[in-house]
Amino acid sequence: MAPPPERLKANYNVSVKLEPFFTGGKVQVSKDGEFLLCQCGDRIQVIDTKYGKTIRSLIQEEDEVITFVIGYDDETLISSHKSSLLRHWNWKDGSVVRTWKSLHLTPVVELVFDTTTTLVASGGTDGSLKIWDIKRQYCTHNLKGGSGVYSIVKFHPDPNLPIIFGASMDCKIRCWDLNNSKLLGVLEGHFSVVTGFTIFNSIKQAVSSGRDKVLIFWDLTTYSQIRIIPTYECTESLVPIEFGKPMPLLKVTDVKSPHVITAGERGCLRVWNVKSGVEVLTQTDSLVTQPIVEGAPTITQLEYNEINDHIYVITFDHNIIVHQRKDLTLVKQYAGYNDDILDIAWFGEGETHLAVATNSIHVKVYDIETMNCTLLKGHTDLVLALATSKSDFNILITSSKDNSVRVWRMSQSPFQITCIAQGNAHTGSVGSVALSRTKLSFLVSGSQDTCLKMWKLNPIQHESDQNLSVLHTVVAHDKDINAVCISPNDNLIASGSQDKVAKIWNSSDLKLLGVLRGHRRGLWAVQFSPADQILASGSTDGNIMLWSLIDYSCLKTLEGHESSVLRINFVSKGYQLVSAASDGLIKLWTIKTSECVATMDAHQSKVWALAVKSDDSLLVSGAGDSTLILWKDVTKEEKEAAVQEKEKRILEEQQLANLMQKGLLLEALGLAIHLDQPFRTLNILKDLMDQGEGALADLEKMLVKLSTNQKDSLLRYSTTWNTNSRHCHQAQMVLNILLANHTTDELFSLPSLRSSIAGLLMYNERHMQRLSRLRQNTAILPYTAAKIQATRGEEVMETN
Fold first, then answer.
1. What band does 10 get if pLDDT is binned at 50, 70 and 90?
2. Measured in whole angstroms, how far is the alpha carbon of residue 743 from the centre of its chain?
3. Number of other residues whose CB lies within 10 A of the CB of residue 471
4. Of the candidates 560, 553, 507, which has an alpha carbon nearest to the alpha carbon of residue 534?
5. Which residues 6+ apart lie within 8 Å of 327 measured at CB?
6. Whose CA is closest to 262, among 305, 301, 294?
7. Is the pLDDT of residue 631 over 90?
8. What is the rounded CA–CA span in Å between residue 131 and residue 163?
9. Coil, strand or helix: which one is 200?
């Protein structure tokens, strides 16, 4: 039975596109805390902190950004580039105000503004430090003395003290007086790169951090050390706590001592009393991932925003974690870069969240409304597959390269996701999982060890990290198992493997029921139909095959993908199918007609992940280009738009007929061009030419006033008319008007002009030759008539 037309989908359009916005480098927060500015490859991305979406990109083609800084006016931004250029931006509208050469011999790696946003300092890798007046547009100082790359440049926070500090590769912090460019003092004590420097202006003291695992407390009146504080970690960044302000939740009670918050290779925030050298608080619930390489920096930067009192923790794996400073509670998380997206699943009651498996040991869970990202920690190697069930979207199954599967539960009040069970019986990477669909009684996993395992899932798991028990195990395939799925009634299990076959199993005892052979390459996807006894399979051979579950024969093959089919999902209650392939294309198929209804092209790499919302209104895809795309069903909107367009066209055609009947040819001409009706346009022009010179003068005025698109349409019509000698007069008239009333630049702004020139020239030459022959023939006639008349006159005279 054919499905009702209103049930079938016609197309999905991009609703939300989440692209990488931070790939390493610098991050800064706007003064009001509403925007994040992050380095992302060759550009600076402006991110809305409320929704986590990119609203603007600051980019100059083929000129990669090295670093940037925002001024205290919260509008001015200066960026340095690999081309040794400095650019002045207004980041709020994305415009470039000015570009100039940095005058450094090597790239600029440090930029900083003074408190008035008048001066900007640039520290290069050549050991020089330059000061620029961005309003008067000239270099005011060239400070020398540093050695190698500058790691820290900082103006004194008191605008009345023209002093600047700079730390370079020799691990010394130099202080210059900008009034006379003289060196005031050198802070010596670090034995590795200086990574942080903050000044307590009220007590004329400062604190610096370095990778030599110490903090140094300085006296800025004598430029000497007050105390060296061992931290036992490479410190990458520090932020001060206001002097004299008690913060009991951070155990800052001694208001007469300066305090700082530091972060580094341990991956946690630490609060220090720098006067006594005591660590007063260590963060115990840090969400930062530990790097695989021992000793590598875990936290690369700290940013503090005074207005919202938030600390932004920037990690080595491109995550941005936001804490409330007063108690270090978690506010929000952003995932700046996902790398390859391997799998996606709708998660949470009402499918309000997306669970995403990337090239990471953590699962990222996004809130669809705010794009707040929560990291699920538990696996010790890359997470490969995810699964949820319509019976309870609060349960999530994950599998990993660590040979384990884990069960997670989401609770809403308060929002929390906890691991409630895990299973560790596989001996290879677990590449696919599936969850029972009618009730949460079991789950199935397929692994690189070629085994298919069925796990018992208790209905209610209150304790954390319970061990899952294996109900059945079978060596299912000869090669890696890439896909498993469970039928809608939980009676059947399907598995797909690199050995080119799919197999059907009885879920009660994992007894083999059927083998589906037909694909020429390994399988990546299998899926049961929600309506019929059909299984769909996708393979590296580019084909989607539909199999009968009664006799296990191939019913039909959907051909259209030119590369590996990696994911398939049924939509429209089983009447249609959505597939994703390694060429970045997503296709929508109608099964009854085997027709590809729509092709969606928005990814630049392999689409590894595809998930459809239970009501088919949204589907989400993830690919190797690190992009997550939400697609919205626009079938209803497109049908309504088509009906409205049809009604509008009928009314306009009726209006055109009325205008022609009334003899209002100039108005009818504009409407005919708008409706893209070249034949009617030609007939109207013929009628106007028959009316004489007055009508032609009005026609010329009217054609000059046409829009660029209408003139382009008229040019295309004329090019076609010009190929026929019966219509060439109208074509030549239109061309004459266009050429006589427009400049060369205006003519070349018409999209069709360049493609029309060759055809016009060729047929114009033919028309010219034809007219020349006609002119010659018309000149011969009077001559012949005169000769005949002269001959007759001579004959008459001879007769007389």
1. confident
2. 41
3. 18
4. 553
5. 249, 250
6. 301
7. yes
8. 11
9. strand
